[in-house]
Amino acid sequence: MGAAWTKTKRPPLALTKENVDDFMQQFDTIVSDCDGVLWTPLRGIPHVKEGLESLRAAGKKILFVTNNSVIPPFRKFERLGFAVQKNEVVYPAIAIGRYLEKIGFKKKAFVLGVEHFKDELRSRGVAVVPDKRTSDLMEEDLGAMLRAIHEDTDIGAVIVDLDVNLTFMDLVKATNHLKRPDCMFLVGATDSFVTFDEGKILLGPGHFIRTLEECSGRKAELIGKPGPMMVSEYLQEIHNLNMDRTIFMGDSLVQDMGVANACGMKKLLVLSGMTQLKDLETCDPELLPDYYIDSIGDLPALLGQRGA
Ligand SMILES: [Mg+2]
């Protein structure tokens, strides 16, 4: 028995009025996740705008990293009334597009993702296949399925993210492209589940990525969290971050505390999303945060900026 943190140097600290000054002195930049921290898919989280403003008022730089390439977060920031610059936000479609641009990728990319994800890649000059969604049903015949698999040596990458219209044949075709060792295998979000409002569960792309890894015998290159690339390459290059003076704030133990570990950042867990305090008792001790707070909306009061 015993909590996971008994195996670590110190337990996660609840952020309080007593320790908030010490906390604030430990970082210049805060990198924040979005879903579950700033909003949930169906509703907002109270006082988030004030929480973000309290960090800016204290002179902290705030950057945003999300695994969600389905809907760009910019409209949500607008609705929140919190101004962000385009280069202060990154999600896998942006990071993968920039990566392909940087390496001078000129081949076609076979993409299992939503249309916004593909558009982001197209905007960086990537030729995306399949070019158009088709609603055609596959003939239920092995010969027809085999005839639908076309060897295309011009496909230089299989890229996988959340694809809400994923089909059996997409997985079959991706597996066949991945047979060629020169075809890159890049993945954005790897979340297995997305559980938020009303206890409903959405499947993330993690299950399908594992299927493709098993079927192809390949290991995907992870661009989304908990991989470090969105922070340690994209944001680092643009904003020249000092990881020793950067903290990551998120609601997921695996993705958010994981990316903080991968990049050497301090860790703040918020309990407004997918993790509950009791989960800290059983999680991998490596994923324990340094600090936790119920919601970023509680920050102004802790900092003495709200209420009397
Ligand atoms: Mg989240």
What class would the helix/strand composition place it in?
Answer: alpha/beta
Bound molecules: magnesium ion
CATH topology of the largest domain: Rossmann fold
Give the total of domains.
Answer: 2
Order the strands across the largest sheet as they lie in space. Answer: 1-14-13-12-2-3-4
Q: Could you name the CATH class of the largest domain?
A: Alpha Beta
Protein name: Glycerol-3-phosphate phosphatase-like
Family: Belongs to the HAD-like hydrolase superfamily.
Binding site for substrate: 225
Binding site for Mg(2+): 33, 35, 251
Give an account of the 3D structure.
With 308 residues, this protein is α/β, with parallel strands linked by helices. The chain has two domains: 133 residues, Rossmann fold (3-Layer(aba) Sandwich), CATH 3.40.50.1000; 115 residues, HAD superfamily/HAD-like (Rossmann fold). It contains eleven helices and 14 strands. The strands form three sheets. It has a seven-stranded parallel β-sheet with strand order 1-14-13-12-2-3-4, sandwiched between helices. It has a five-stranded parallel β-sheet with strand order 6-5-7-8-11, with helices on both faces. Strands 9-10 form a two-stranded antiparallel sheet. α10 links the parallel β12 and β13. α4 runs parallel beside α5.
